[in-house]
Design goal:
The protein is mainly alpha-helical and 222 residues long. The chain is built from 12 helices and no strands. Helices cover 57% and strands 0% of the residues. Helix 7 packs across helix 10.
């Protein structure tokens, strides 16, 4: 059965992006029509496509809207922007280690503001869940997709559930894109000792442990 949301128009960012609201009478009329013709899935959305396209967040795949806004697919600026986006990871890796996290965090915030429809000058609490700023489930998918496109790699569907704040998103990207400092290697003598222990059989390891425990007991009794 098709689902149509009927509501009075509230003040929100969607109207500014070209998405209108359906009057109750129009909504019920469409519902009746869809039920009569037996449509399994439908979306009834009053959209100003040109306005919507003008408000697409940075990194959005404009070619996706080719069917309704044909001129977007062939615009050279779109391809140039796409090439620039896929080079984001290379930019981060070439930056000094001390600057990488701030660059990643700034990028994540830029994408989040675009998805939320907020002005680029808006300041968000990097430690607060993005849902507090108005992020809903659909926006979470949109933000995940925007970040995936910008780094040229797929990201898990649960990204915004596991990392709900800007700070946590930046930490996730730093770790999984190997942008964070790698742990220092253990001293050579420690690695040699560890390898030697790993090479022991269970019986040899047990005998060595018992010998050390007996030695410790004798030292304590002196």
């Amino acid at each position: 059965m098709p689902t149509i949301v009927v509501s009075d128009p509230p003040a929100d960012s969607w109207a500014d992006r070209g998405l209108g609201w359906i009057e109750s009478s129009t909504g019920f009329a469409w519902l009746e029509r869809l039920l009569r013709i037996g449509v399994a899935h439908a979306a009834v959305l009053p959209i100003d496509w040109q306005r919507f396209a003008a408000k697409l967040p940075p990194g959005a795949d404009r070619a996706y809207f080719r069917a309704v806004i044909p001129q977007l697919a062939d615009a050279p600026v779109v391809e140039a922007g796409r090439r620039q986006e896929t080079g984001k990871l290379d930019q981060w890796k070439s930056a000094p280690q001390s600057e990488r996290r701030s660059l990643v965090l700034a990028h994540v915030q830029e994408r989040a503001l675009g998805v939320l429809g907020l002005d680029a000058s808006t300041t968000l609490d990097v430690r607060a869940p993005l849902k507090d700023a108005g992020l809903d489930s659909l926006m979470a998918v949109e933000l995940r997709n925007a970040l995936s496109r910008s780094i040229g790699q797929s990201l898990p569907a649960t990204l915004l559930f596991d990392s709900p704040s800007l700070d946590q998103l930046a930490s996730y990207l730093m770790k999984n894109l190997k942008l964070a400092p790698q742990p220092a290697a253990a001293p050579l003598e420690t690695r040699v000792a560890a390898n030697a222990v790993a090479a022991l059989s269970d019986e040899e390891a047990e005998a060595q442990l018992l010998a050390e425990l007996e030695g410790s007991s004798r030292d304590a009794s002196k």
